[in-house]
Model the fold of this input.
Amino acid sequence: QVQLVESGGGTVQAGGSLRLSCATSGRLASNYAMTWFRQAPGKEREFVASISANTENTHYAETVRGRFTISKDNAETILYLQMNNMRPEDTAVYYCAAATTYSPRTVVTGVNSHEFWGQGTQVTVSS
Done:
């Protein structure tokens, strides 16, 4: 039983920064990869970044690589997405999600591979 709650969304000017958080509650197994997705109006849900259960491996979409960083806190109860040098095309609802894996080193990118989802938080980047 896993509950995910996103926070930290808002409005920022182009070139600015935001940090999103995803708090976990309930039992979170040690073999859960965690992932950020986003969905803009009129578009399909899009992969952003994933981190393995043991935090050793990360993977980023080409559109955010070098600008965004995914991480966990030391207790591994909060998932973060640090977003720097933001662009108007980053505007979307951002979701955190958890995926059961068979290895703590696995990252997961597919929407349908994730069992647990947060409610989403709106991010708007103005030009």
User: Anything to note?
Assistant: The first strand starts at residue 2 and ends at 7. The chain has no helices and eleven strands. The mean pLDDT is 94. The two ends are 41 Å apart (CA to CA).
